[in-house]
């Protein structure tokens, strides 16, 4: 698929088919694509916690994704918790921030990785939903995520059971300035 078509056709999906299970091999393909993203000084601080077991998916949905009906929206999808190791991207080896953004660089780098992940999913015919509304403390406890990592998002991955329409996008004139 042509890249422009891929990015224009990718949608956030909120209803997944019960007839498809995501495999470890598919998840590995997604994470491999994520790891191709650039990162601050090649620090590669993104980390991924993939929940495939039905029991764990149900528990995570019920206890950690109850905001904005994310628990219902992600039924029948695999769940990937994305984190970054804080105080590394955007920092010197002695812990001094390189600029005023500090840990914002870890989040920025993870965003680049997550974009690669969701575009690879679309290329493979899978659908995704990125969720920021979640209970990070419960997720950390449930998946034994170290305190040295910042939990950013949960990404649902599955086969769409709906066809969302394309949302209106801003015009270039609204966001682009030339000097």
TrEMBL record:
Keywords: Oxidoreductase. It comes from the Bacteria. Residues 7-158 form the Nitroreductase domain. Belongs to the nitroreductase family. PANTHER family: NAD(P)H NITROREDUCTASE YDGI-RELATED (PTHR43673), NADH DEHYDROGENASE_NAD(P)H NITROREDUCTASE XCC3605-RELATED (PTHR43673:SF10). This is Nitroreductase family protein. It comes from Blautia acetigignens. The lineage of its organism: Bacteria, Bacillati, Bacillota, Clostridia, Lachnospirales.
